[in-house]
Amino acid sequence: DCRQYTNRSCEECLKNVTCLWCASSRKCMEYPVQRILPPADLCELRSARWGVCWVNFEALIIAMSVVGGTFLIMLGVCCCCCCCKKKSKKQVSGGSLPDKDDERAAREREKRRVRQEERRAEMKSRHDEIRRKYGLFKEENPYAKFEN
């Protein structure tokens, strides 16, 4: 029971982690776990101590807010820097220097074009061979037959 440490010292009260020390009234009481912060009618924030005697809730809230705000600002700055780097990298690669994906895509297009040309030439030679076999081959000069 925390009330047995009332009017003693803060250190004795806070040996039990469920206790809250109120420095202004020198009372030791159960920490109100249903609320995050102890209500003002129980103990003022500047007088409330929990965990350690040298930090009051008011200073703890201010310190946590400053640390949290600093962390959020740093996180925002880092995100902005990363976004700006990506954007500038894309502008450089989009302008004069192609990036690796563009180069790879260009190589693939060129390979497909070469294969298509080879297939086209192969089909033309096959068709020409069939035309020659059946006498359907169109000669360049239609009067060449009659010259002999």
UniProtKB/TrEMBL annotation:
Domain PSI: 1-54
Localization per Swiss-Prot or TrEMBL: Membrane
PANTHER family assigned: PITUITARY TUMOR-TRANSFORMING GENE 1 PROTEIN-INTERACTING PROTEIN (PTHR15191:SF14), PROTEIN CBG20567 (PTHR15191)
A biological process term (GO) from this entry: protein import into nucleus
InterPro entries hit by this protein: PSI, PTTG1IP
Residue ranges crossing the lipid bilayer per the database entry: 59-84
Compositionally biased intervals (Basic and acidic residues): 98-127
Matches recorded under SMART domains: PSI
Gene Ontology cellular-component terms listed: cytoplasm; membrane; nucleus
Topology of this chain in the membrane: Single-pass type I membrane protein
Descriptive protein name: PTTG protein
Superkingdom, taxonomy of origin: Eukaryota
Keyword terms: Glycoprotein, Membrane, Signal, Transmembrane, Transmembrane helix
Chief localisation class: membrane
Annotated region described as Disordered, given as residue ranges: 87-127
